[in-house]
Specification:
One of its GO terms (molecular function) is carboxypeptidase activity. By secondary structure, the chain is mainly alpha-helical. The protein is 64% helix and 3% strand. The chain is built from 20 helices and three strands.
Length: 503
Amino acid sequence: MAIHSIHDAIHRFEESQSKIKALNYATSMLFWDASTGAPKSGADARSKSIGTMSGFLYQLTVNEQIKEDLTLLMANLESLDEIKRVSVIEAKREYDKLTKIPMDEFQAYNELVSKSAMVWEEAKEKSDFKMFEPYLEKVINMLLKFADYRGFEGHPYNLYIDDFEPGMSVDQLNVFFDTLRARVVPLLQKIMDKKREIPTDFLKKNYPKDLQDQVSRQLLSLMKFDLERGLLKESVHPFTMGVDIDDVRLTTHYYENDLASAMLSTAHEGGHAIYEQNIDRKLQQTLLATGTSNGIHESQSRLYENNFCKSHAFISYFLPYLKSVFPEQLKEVGVETFYKGLNKVEPSLIRIEADELTYSLHIMIRYEIELGLIDGTIKVSELPSVWNQKVKDYLGIVPSNDAEGVLQDVHWSEGLFGYFPTYALGSAYAAQIAHYMGKEIDIEDCLSKGDFEPLTKWLNSKVHQYGALKKPNELIELITGERLNSKYYCDYLEEKFSKVYEL
């Protein structure tokens, strides 16, 4: 009887997972359409459709039958194979997250963040933090209330980092950022003291969009992204969408006076897309057919963008091709000039414009502030002054207004606390993975020939195939024999930028 019941429960569970996957696919298509050229006049109709589908999604995720089935299956995990077992554990985690918060409060919170994001937009436009302050206070108060409902161990922030990077904790992040602070800040200071001028004017010439699109497609082809099972389009903000192993879409954005922007965005999004496209087919019909975490996903985009495509070896291979496409614009530019221009370090106030070295310092600033806001050591009213001081301490520059300071990112208005650290974790995972890849493959030799096949195949085997079957900690240990270790990231930055700036 018990075996028969488990069989029935797993059948119903897989059926509901299949329906959730289908709904996710349909919702993704609406989002893709809206982001890549759908008429703005259809926004209301699209929003209503998405709202209706999110209602169906909730009903599939939370109902009495699924509650019974999950209880039975959780009690009999040892009788399930690995894929079913992990799928059930993840579904239970999602069920608990949704049901521990009272429905009316959850709806009130969604209304609040929707309004908060709109107020943030206006506040940023007017560079007026005071407008946004009461909304951010309410968002944080509700998040703290939800943390009590959901339950947590140690610091309440552990709950929110775990939403985006399962298994990560404040204790681990503190060690990680302490190492970065001790090694990256002094390195930046040395570079600034050197006062070495690196020309980048050649990157700002006129580069027609259609030819940049040709370059993007050539780059994706070299990286071994299969365009027969994927799609590249343009959008305001580049993103990747893996709706299915055989339907992975990415976007980039072309600026006629900035060659580096689209090229690096394409490499970055291509890294995400290659991950989604090479998940084991055994996971295709499950909700595990996606990346395991934000940080591991970001590691793949950072690897292709920074460690591979911004490397000296790859530039020496790729520049002749770029010159064939843009002969006039790049006529006088040599490999050394292009490489250094692409890797120029210049502290900036805006995170999304940050270079590779200073980017993680932007994340560290946000992490320290998020921690303080959640544990109450920083008051919302103090934010602009706290922000400006941290930017001065880490980057040596000071925002002149709230728009280029504390109001520059949308994340907090939408309640996305715990998200920012995964950007820095991605770069650190990338450096650690590249270090261990280098023990088995001559990475530089491959890149100097434009031969990504051994690199991508290695990542397919070590990272991509597992999808969300393994947790980030489990995966990084499987690949490297150790947990996340920021030493590799700091070593990589010191070695690379000491050479670029001849320190």
